[in-house]
Each structure stands twice: as C-alpha cells, then as structure tokens.
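Pasting two entries for a bug report.
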Amino acid sequence: MDIRSLRYFIETARLSSFTQAAEALHVTQSTISKMVRQLEHEVGAPLLVRDGRRLTLTDTGAVVYARGEEMLATLRRLQLEVRDTQARQRGTLAIGIPPMINLLFTPVLKAFRERHPGIALALSEDTGQAIERQVAAGELELGMTVLPADATLALQAEPIASYPLYALAAAGTFQRSRRTLRLKELAALPLVLLKDDFALTRALRNAFAQAGITPAIAAQSGQWDWLVEMASVGIGVALVPEPFVHRLADERLHAVRIVEPALAWDVAHVWNGRYLSHAARAWLAVCQDVLGLKSPRGSPRPR
C-alpha cells in the first residue's frame, strides 16, 4: 500500500473535501483524486461516497481511515526516533540545572563530552521550581530539582542523590561539642533561606509545616554564598546540604546535622513524561555510570 496515497486519502476524509485536502498538502486537486482512486484500486473497494461536494466514508473507508491513521502515527514515530538516533551523534540537549546541584554534575559533564562530542549541551541555570515549569512546558527536555516536585505539573521524577541537611551558624551559636540539632529547635532561631522559588525552600517550608513550626526568617537571597556570609556574621542560621558543608564552613562557622526528623536534600531528574530523546537517554546513561544512578522506569538504557 502506497503511504502517500494513504496520507492523501486520510487528509481528504478528515477535511471532507478534495479541494481543502489539496490546499493542505500543497498539491493539485487532480493529484488528490488520482491518489485516492489508486488506493481504492489497491483495496478493491470504494472508500468514499461522493455526493456532490459532500464526502462520506464507506464501511471499508472507515476501516482504512482508522488503521491508516495508526500507520501514519507509527511512521511519524519512526522518523522521530531515527532523527533522535542521529542526534546521538549530533544535535542539542537542553537541560536545566539549579545552583549548587550543578556542582555535583561536573564529572558527568566531562564524561558526556568525551562520549558524545557531537551533542551540544544547552545548560540553563535557574531555580528548581522554575526549571520544573520549563520542563513541563517543553522548553527544557530534562531538568533537575529538589523533591518533592510540584504535584500540579505533569512531570516524571527519578531520584539522583539524597544528602542530609545541616544547620550552618556563626561560631558560638551552638555549643562547641554539639553535632546535631532537633528540627523543632530551629523555631527559636532566625533563619536565612534561599528565595521561595528555590525547590529547597519549598521542601523546607513543607517540613516546617508538618512539624508545626513557624520559622523566623531573618532574610532570603538567591545567592548561596551570601546566605553563608550572613550566617557567618550571626544574622541567621543557613540550612545547607552535606556535600557543601566542608566547602562553605570555615573557622567562623559551626555546622550541626538536623535530626528528629532528619531533613534531606533529595535531588532528582525531571522530564515531562511524554518522550525522552536518545540524547536525553544518553545523558541519563552517563549519569548512571558516573553517579551509580538507575535509568528512568520504562526508559531502556541507550547502547
């Protein structure tokens, strides 16, 4: 069965007009008529009932129309997957990475560039919640955020890593020998947090609400280094993930782990759930190799 004839027939049936189908497909009306007749000859039965300007499907036509749409959809998917396969050799992958999370992925970036030098990575740095919205809207194919992601967005999430949170405060705020701090004790301390559009701040506010705590927020900023500087001079306590405690702490600061309950910095990949290109799967495979992550459920690892 000729695919072009099938496409012309489906467009004609969808629009109920040879003229409109010809305009939509940028061919002449006689070409459309010829292709539909050719398809009818191949099938061995009429597909359309021509009643003046009105077109209706015959019983056979209805079957060919329904199955033909499935065939064309499969063909479009095939073409897309072929292009994506080629894109593993060349192309662009758009990924959103929030501040600080990006520091975890330097080894992944290096390995990806070595394995897939023809794929350009378009890295977008923004807050976790902004990245979630961009991924849901299709502006980014992959993003990273701090869980839990926004439940109102159509996103799939796959955890990357989980690290405990520490309270970072000016030396003398806590007893020198202290190593832990109960979550409820934060209620009595001024806090310096990232702005509300950061996914970590969303997670912290959820934790405070669950614990019945109303935090005393002394200041908020979009810059991690400024939060740490404010903590170092005693303006408030900063809440920092474990991997960065040693990077940020110095003789002016004291870090204690938050417990009862422990708070975690749960980092995850998010995507819109509709489709993952081969370039995106290649990225996830490199993440798996470098960081020991699992491939997304239902997404076979590229070879």
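Entry 2 (this is the one that rendered wrong in the viewer):
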Amino acid sequence: MSDNNVKKWYVVRAVSGQENKVKAYIETEINRLGMGDFVSQVLVPTEKVVTVKEGKKIVKDKVYFPGYVMIEANLAGEIPHIIKSITSVIGFLGEVKGGDPVPLRISEVNRMLGKVDELAVTGDSRAVAFMLGETIKVIDGPFNGFNGTVEKINEEKRKVEVMVKIFGRKTPLELGFMQVEKV
C-alpha cells in the first residue's frame, strides 16, 4: 500500500518565533530536492489581530500556535529526515522516539485551519471567546469605546449581540468578534 499521493497533515515543531522562516526553509529545501510531489502545503496558522496605536488600527498576523508549523505531506522515505534536518526544526509533534511522526486527525486539521466542524464546537468551549452576560468593550466601529453585555453569540457568523447603553437607553448591536474585546 505505497500510494505516493496519500498525504496527511503533520505538525512540525519549530523554534518559537521562527515559524515563517521554517515554512520558507521547508519549501525551499523540498523544491531544491524536487520532492514537491511529497509535500503539498506548508502552513503557519495565523490569526488577524487588530491593535489600535495612536488612534490608527493596525492589523497584524499573529501566529496562532507559536512553535508549530503544519505540513501536508506523504512522509515517505527520506522526507521526515529532510524536514527534521532543517534549521530551527525541533521535530514532529507526537512522534515516539525512533517512531514515525503521527498525523493529525481531520477534525484537528479543520479546527486548526478554522473550518470548525459542528461536533468540535460543542466539545471544545475554547472556540467561543465570549460568554453570555459577560461585559465587553467595543473596539471598532461607530460605538468604539462603549461597554456592553453579551446577549447572544453566533459562532458560525463569528458575531455577538451586545446590549449597549447609548444615551441612557439599552440598544442591541450585532458586532463581529474582532470588534469587541473582554473588559
């Protein structure tokens, strides 16, 4: 059963802060060796983080899992050895000493890539950053600076309904996860 096109996702442990370099090193090395058939994707999962500096919104990509790089590969023959010998690579996640790297389950891959399958949501409460009744602060849009209470959370649309006091009246606002932060 040595089908060369069967690829699975693996997690490569990298020196923290070097994730993008490791991604580039792996891609360069695989291309140099003509092994592109075996490694189809190298990803550094990131999230967009909005910070406000001197009144300006700055969107930065923040590495979601510091120290980890995901690769979709068929780890045949020399591939694991080649990847492990790359600068700033510590090894594969989940490998037993002397054993083979352990592939990720599809549900894990989807969660890491942000395609949350419904089952994972119920079992993994970390997916929801906000809780009902929690006080949050609006950090984006016309109501920037207002505080409010989370009334509803829509995980699929990544939105929260927030009750905000505006001119003494409670007003419901629908805001994206990126527009609010915990107080």
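Dev reply: Rendering is fixed now. As a check, the viewer should reflect this: Residues 128-182 form a domain with the SH3 type barrels. fold (CATH 2.30.30.30).
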